[in-house]
Automatic annotation (TrEMBL), chains A, B:
<protein>
    <submittedName>
        <fullName>Transcriptional regulator, TetR family</fullName>
    </submittedName>
</protein>
<keyword id="KW-0805">Transcription regulation</keyword>
<feature type="domain" description="HTH tetR-type">
    <location>
        <begin position="11"/>
        <end position="71"/>
    </location>
</feature>
<dbReference type="GO" id="GO:0003700">
    <property type="term" value="F:DNA-binding transcription factor activity"/>
</dbReference>
<keyword id="KW-0238">DNA-binding</keyword>
<dbReference type="GO" id="GO:0000976">
    <property type="term" value="F:transcription cis-regulatory region binding"/>
</dbReference>
<dbReference type="Pfam" id="PF00440">
    <property type="entry name" value="TetR_N"/>
</dbReference>
<dbReference type="InterPro" id="IPR050109">
    <property type="entry name" value="HTH-type_TetR-like_transc_reg"/>
</dbReference>
<feature type="DNA-binding region" description="H-T-H motif">
    <location>
        <begin position="34"/>
        <end position="53"/>
    </location>
</feature>
<dbReference type="InterPro" id="IPR001647">
    <property type="entry name" value="HTH_TetR"/>
</dbReference>
<dbReference type="InterPro" id="IPR009057">
    <property type="entry name" value="Homeodomain-like_sf"/>
</dbReference>
<keyword id="KW-0804">Transcription</keyword>
Length: 205, 205
């Protein structure tokens, strides 16, 4: 979050594009909407939109990518403070709460539904998630608190965090709108995790 | 595994197609190989190949899909016998060991490398995995041993199993060829899982 006026104006603009796109996708369906339609709705030229987003798929994935950046920044600040998975979950709930405050929980939900509805976008979202997991693992590996012999553990924690994210999103989407935030579902899933993981032989000995 | 002669002949044919395709992809790169080339290498008509596989992407994903079917069958046989995640891991290591015996560990590895190399195929493999997790969850939900109040737990176990699979594949691919099987990596990842999951408040109280 840069505080400069110029940056804030750019962020506001991005957000207006995303909101307009979500409205239009809801009204007409993703495939029926073009970048020119998004531009028209907010009185900008379509070249302006293209300066921010390479395609309408990218407009739809805009909030996901932004939320994930905020998440990585927060992980970076907290690394070494506790168990990795807890660090990830805390960073994500904070990033989500901030995003939700800024754009509204409803926008996040509508975006998530649109992504699921269009297979090509869903495939891109899955590739983006896989890429994020790689970046998250590299971030942790480079941190002085994690010695090379812990690299396998790091990757496993990253994958399990991916599992927590997927399940939190599933529960949040299947709950009626307005009932609990995505951040709350993250917390609930984290709390339920030990029950599905068989305890280690050492732990039960 | 149907025991009929006709079925075995079909299975053998499928396997010859997959092996020939893997060889050709290795030699020339995925994008340079057509279904006609696969057909030529094994002296079949390309129409025969199309009867088994809708596209060359499907030939490449053939072993993945087959392995996952065998996995689901084994899960179905074992449900209710122990913790879900253990059931999944046991079913998967068995299915992998059988597949590896039939086609060779090396073929599985080459396939996996090819899938990673081509983004469109990788996206399809990710969609297939997401679909498999849905089918796995439905399979468990329909089983009498799992009451509706356990549905959240089931979905979480399925997602964590997806994490275990991804990490087992990563480790196996980064190990030098010939060093340990994918099934062995599954076991190792399962054994390391408790260390990355923070213990529940109840368990530590």
């Amino acid at each position: 979050m840069s505080g400069s006026l110029r940056q804030r104006q750019k962020d506001d603009r991005r957000l207006r594009m995303i909101h307009a796109a979500l409205e239009l996708f809801d009204e007409h369906g993703f495939s029926e909407v073009g970048v020119a339609d998004i531009a028209e709705r907010i009185g900008m030229s379509y070249r302006t939109i293209y300066r921010y987003f390479p395609s309408k798929e990218d407009v739809l994935l805009g909030l996901v990518i932004e939320g994930n950046h905020a998440f990585l920044e927060r992980v970076d600040e907290r690394l070494g403070e506790g168990p990795l998975l807890v660090t990830f979950a805390d960073a994500m709930t904070e990033a989500l709460e901030e995003l939700s405050e800024r754009v509204g929980e409803d926008a996040i939900r509508r975006m998530s539904e649109q992504i699921d509805r269009v297979e090509s976008v869903r495939a891109r979202a899955l590739l983006h998630s896989a890429d994020m997991r790689d970046r998250l693992a590299s971030l942790v590996e480079r941190h002085p608190a994690y010695a090379p012999e812990r690299h396998s553990e790091i990757h496993l924690a990253v994958e399990v965090f991916g599992a927590v994210s997927a399940e939190a999103q599933r529960r949040w989407r299947s709950a009626p709108p307005g009932r609990g935030s995505l951040a709350d579902e993250f917390r609930a899933v984290m709390a339920g995790l030990p029950a599905v993981v068989p305890s280690s032989p050492e732990a039960s000995a």
